[in-house]
Amino acid sequence: MRTSALGAALFFAANAVMAQSYPSRPVRFVVPYAPGGSTDTLARSIGTKLSDLLGQQVVVDNRPGANGDIGMTIVAKAPPDGYSIVLGYIANLGIGPSLYEKMPYDPVKDFASITQVAGASNIFVIHPSLPAKNFKEFIAYTKANPKKVNFASAGVASVGHLTGELLNDMAGIDMQHVPYKGSGQAITDLVGGHIKVMISGMASTLPHVRSGKLIGIVTTGIKRTPATPEIPTIAETFPGFESSSWFGVLAPAGTPKPIVTRLNVEIHKSLQDPAVAKRLAGVGFEITYGTPEEFTAYIKSEIKKWAKVVKASGARPD
User: Fold this and answer.
1) Which of 2, 73, 244, 275 falls between 20 and 30 A from 218, CA-CA?
2) Is the peptide bond before 23 cis (omega within 30 degrees of 0)?
3) Which domains, and CATH codes, for the chain?
4) What is the pLDDT of residue 295?
5) Whole-model pTM?
């Protein structure tokens, strides 16, 4: 008993010393997706300010692949010392557990939640060549042409895919899903007119809407977003419809509580910086805050919610 008590005391003492000197070198901020998407935009906005607040460089490290699982796994298996953190996304933390029989990490057990950082409605965009200029016309056109309207997404069981399937069900239409390996190529094909419809994050598509290359016909949140107040929501036509993305920062399980607390505080300060807040709002992000415990509870609730949608959609991994 004395040996166990002494060991515990030494462990907590070591953690306290580590936290006091943290950080003493650069912090790696893993983004499980390629540069240019919503997740990357959010991470770089936070990371720039966080570097100043921590007094050490926060290096954004893009590790795309396997629907985000590669980057998530890297951090799940990293030393729990606060020098590796990851920007988790609804697809990895909320949808993945219901989609895959076995994942390389457990979204709850293998991570120490730091904080949720943002939410974002997705946007339903169409190419101008499609014979529909608003949501009402799109629904009518799709009903008149069953199985002939294809919609792109960043991949099977991505938020865009499941949102499209949810719309199929609620609107009584039959769009056909075309999965891509990430949003970048899908958006390129959409702008080029090779595919006509996509449900995607605003950060990557809104610039094309504002330039006139694409048309934003609806957003997917429960209410209109400050970034696009002129664009209606799907819920205005089909009450109760909601499908929003969310993001949060996590560290490996076992990261000392004082370090988690420090990161929670400094990330909140980063998000409150006027320049960061303005940039994120401009691309459709709504900043969120919370304790590590609240973020963990939210992840658990989202796993339950999306399990029902995945089952109803019949989605299977590639």
Assistant:
1) 275
2) yes
3) 14-120+244-313 (3.40.190.150), 122-236 (3.40.190.10)
4) 97
5) 0.79
